[in-house]
Each structure stands twice: as structure tokens, then as C-alpha cells.
């Protein structure tokens, strides 16, 4: 009877231990399940946060890309407008420069032609005046030569007359006394007329 009681006691104790073990196992499984659920919820929350953060980053990036595209389009539009304005201004400047250059060249040609015409007319007038002066000088030179020839002839005639008069005066004089042995002085021979002074 004691052995049965001990066996009964051991059996009850074993049952209690088994029940406690099952209870602890159930509690552990419950806690494990709860922790798995919490971990799953935390993972889902973190995943959702990461997804939301990624979506915000992607949205920000898309907005920045869109703003960059819009800015680049504005820059490209402004650049094209500036290039078109620069081309138009350059074309206008070139056209004005060509027009101005043509006017300057035409004016220079007109002034050059006027100067050439003036120089040619002046040269012709100067040549004609020089020819007139040369003819006048030749006529004056001929008149002067004729006058000098006449003057030289008159001077030569006067000199001949003076020499003839002097010889006549010498021949008419009579000497009052003559020393013996000295011949009378001979008259100087008369020079031929027609000597001219230069």
C-alpha cells in the first residue's frame, strides 16, 4: 500500500510537472508568438517607413528633376532667343556697315574724281599759262636782243666818231720846235668801225 501511495504520489508529481511544463511551453509559445507578431509589426512599420521615405526621396528627386528640366528648357529658350537676337543684330550691323561703307566709298570716289578733275584742269591751265609766258618771254627776249643790237651799233658809231675826231685834232696841231735827230711822232692808225660792247 505504501508503494502504491508512493507510486501515486510520483505519478501525481510527474503529472504536475508535465502540466507545468506544458503550461510553461504554452506560455513560451505564446510569448514567442507575441514577440514574432511584434517583430513582424515592427518590421512592417519599418518597412512602411522605409517605403514612405523612399517615396518621399523619389518624389523629391522627381520634383528636382522636373525643376531642372524646366530650368534647362528656360535656359535653352533664352539662349535661342538671345542667339536669334544676336544674329539679327549682327545682320543689322553688317547691313549698316555695308551701306555705310558703300556711301563712304562712293563719296571717296566722287571726291577723288573731283580732285582729279581739279588737278587736270589746273595742270591744263598751268600748262597753257606756261606756254603763254614762254611765248611772251621769247618775244621779250627777241625785242631785247634787237634793242641791244641797235644800242651796240649806236655805241660803236659813237666810238668811231670819237676816234675819227681825235685823229683829226692830232693831225691839225703844228709842233713849235723839234729837236734834231728826233723824228716826228707818227699818227696812230685808225681802227675799223663796227666794234660792239657786250
Describe the structure.
It is a single chain. This protein has 198 residues and is an all-alpha fold. The protein contains 1 helix and no strands. The longest helix has 171 residues, at 2-172. Mean pLDDT is 82; it is low at 176-198.
Which labels suit this protein?
rod-shaped, mainly alpha, 1 helix
Shape: rod-shaped
Sheet-strand content, in percent, reads: under 5%
Give average pLDDT, whole number: 82
Radius of gyration (Å): 76 Å
Number of helices: 1
Strand segment tally: 0
Helix/strand order: H
- The amount of helix comes to over 70%
Terminal CA distance reads 206 Å
Main beta-sheet strand count, sense and barrel state: none
Q: pLDDT below 50 for ≥5 consecutive residues: which ranges?
A: 176-198
Structural class by SSE content: mainly alpha
Secondary-structure map with pairings?
Elements: H1 2-172
Give the gist of this structure.
The chain is an all-alpha fold.
Amino acid at each position: 500500500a505504501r508503494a502504491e501511495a508512493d507510486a501515486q504520489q510520483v505519478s501525481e508529481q510527474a503529472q504536475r510537472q508535465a502540466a507545468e511544463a506544458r503550461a510553461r511551453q504554452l506560455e513560451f509559445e505564446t510569448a514567442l508568438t507575441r514577440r514574432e507578431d511584434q517583430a513582424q509589426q515592427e518590421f512592417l512599420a519599418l518597412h512602411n517607413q522605409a517605403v514612405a521615405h523612399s517615396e518621399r526621396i523619389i518624389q523629391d528627386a522627381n520634383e528636382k528633376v522636373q525643376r531642372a528640366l524646366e530650368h534647362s528648357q528656360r535656359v535653352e529658350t533664352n539662349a535661342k532667343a538671345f542667339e536669334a537676337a544676336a544674329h539679327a543684330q549682327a545682320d543689322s550691323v553688317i547691313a549698316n556697315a555695308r551701306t555705310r561703307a558703300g556711301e563712304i566709298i562712293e563719296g571717296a570716289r566722287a571726291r577723288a574724281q573731283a580732285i582729279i578733275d581739279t588737278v587736270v584742269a589746273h595742270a591744263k591751265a598751268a600748262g597753257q599759262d606756261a606756254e603763254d609766258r614762254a611765248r611772251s618771254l621769247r618775244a621779250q627776249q627777241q625785242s631785247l636782243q634787237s634793242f641791244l643790237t641797235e644800242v651796240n651799233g649806236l655805241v660803236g658809231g659813237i666810238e668811231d666818231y670819237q676816234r675819227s675826231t681825235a685823229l683829226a685834232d692830232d693831225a691839225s696841231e703844228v709842233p713849235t720846235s723839234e729837236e734834231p735827230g728826233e723824228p716826228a711822232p707818227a699818227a696812230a692808225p685808225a681802227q675799223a668801225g663796227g666794234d660792239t660792247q657786250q
